[in-house]
Amino acid sequence: MVPTWRLRTAFARRLSAVYGTEVPAYTTLLDVTARINEETVRRDGHPGHLGGLDRVTAERHGAIRVGTPDELRQAGAVFAALGMHPVGFYDLRDGPGAVPVVSTAFRPLDAEELERNPFRVFTSLLTPDDRRFFDDGLARRLGTFLGRRTLFPPALLALAARAEDGGGLPDADADRFLTLATDAFALSAEPVDRAWYEELSRVSAVAADIGGVTTTHLNHLTPRVLDIDALYRRMTDHGITMIDRIQGPPRWDGPDVLLRQTSFRALSEPRAFRETDGRVTDGTLRVRFGEVEARGIALTRTGRTRYDALTAETDRRTAASDTTGSDAAADHAATARAVWEAGFPRTERLLATEGLAFFTYAPALTRPRDGRRPPDGLAALLDQGWLTARPIVYEDFLPRSAAGIFRSNLTRDTTRDTERTAAPYDADRLAAALDRPVHDPFARYADRSLTTLRQARRALGLTPTPEESV
């Protein structure tokens, strides 16, 4: 048998090989990322408290887009065979980078599985019933087009069901499953209907990429880097055009939190087009890009509220500036750094004691033997050496950053009628489409953190506090 986690590891490797063939700049990105990671470890030491180098090196997240709830459900079945479950609900339909999709991320849930291979796939669902983007006529024709296609063949879905039920597959079936799954996410050579694609592009390039073709494909495949600022400069030195800035929290002297992302700009890729007279012609599309990420500590709901407030304050101050171009990016970075230095804790200890970030806890290896009883409060337990705290890595995504990277790589802005009412979407509606629960990321982090804190307190002879019992 090939167990679930080995299927996931093999699938991530196969996708990486395919995407490197389809988008050669991705191979450059991997090479630069590996060099930066090695240099960072030599300079700063082992990054173990946020994931060891082996995990960081193997880490990837992909992104795909589907058009219908049925397609989303089938994608969920394929990912379930790989031990990947839907976590989080992301609505990308509002704000300056609005696109007509809602999303979730498929990933492992348990710490042990994440350590084995933390492969994630950010999966977006088109929203044709949102009349801010699609009128009645276009929505009907889009539904007809999507209803005619098959993204995932029956043989793949049958093998996926067996793998989910059995916790893996026999060797021969595993290879067949991996081949079919990889093929399902490879770029198709089938000609694109130019008129139909262009009509959807006038609404959104993302809508065209989902509903204007007969297959799905990887939009990006993202490695993890330990110094994203160094990578940004190095890729630019290689002559690869990057988006205007790094998305997410700023670089500063305090703890790394949440997720920082950037990408090279989408490249013009040759594609075949079918014209209205039936001729097949050559052309290009520019929808796929190379993303890279740096991961930090997961924040609690209170911590995310603080992060959102600091982000809004950075936006307010940046909007008052009259800088443009590269000066605007530098101004934004400097402003964000100043805002964070004034408003965010500068140590991991403060993040823990102020309830702003998630940590796992353990009794210290050595404790005083003079008969002293441990104190009750978390801060005192940490300060006096009774407990150690290890940060929990943020395994999920930031809607604002995802939308910002989407927007940075589009050739035109999305068309949206803000006078119309948005179609209602939430995690429950997404779960109904998937026929699977959509897990709350905050709940996953909190459960892991509180479980270790309870265990550590019991080991020290302390009873759980009321807060820990919730």
Query: What is the number of helical segments per DSSP (H or I, 4+ residues)?
Result: 19
Q: Globular, elongated, flat, extended or rod-shaped: what is the shape?
A: globular
Tell me, what is the CATH class of the largest domain?
A: Alpha Beta
Please report the distance between the alpha carbons of the first and last residues. Answer: 40 Å
Share of helix, binned: 40-55%
User: What is the gyration radius calculated from CA atoms?
Assistant: 23 Å
Average pLDDT level: 90
| Parts with pLDDT < 50 across at least 5 consecutive residues | none
Could you say which structural class the secondary elements and strand pairing correspond to?
alpha+beta
Largest sheet, strands/sense/barrel: 5 strands, mixed
Strand content: 15-25%
> What is the CATH H-level superfamily of the largest domain?
Uncharacterised protein PF07063, DUF1338
CATH architecture of the largest domain: Roll
What is the CATH topology descriptor of the largest domain? Answer: 2,3-Dihydroxybiphenyl 1,2-Dioxygenase, domain 1
How many distinct beta strands? 14
In short:
This protein is α+β, with helices and mostly antiparallel strands and 470 residues long. It has helices spanning 4-22, 24-44, 53-58, 69-80, 111-116, 136-147, 154-166, 171-184, 194-201, 205-211, 228-237, 301-319, 325-343, 348-353, 378-383, 399-408, 427-434, 441-459, 466-469, and strands spanning 2-3, 60-66, 85-91, 101-107, 120-126, 168-169, 192-193, 220-223, 259-264, 269-274, 280-285, 290-295, 359-363, 387-391. A hairpin with a 5-residue loop joins strand 10 and strand 11.
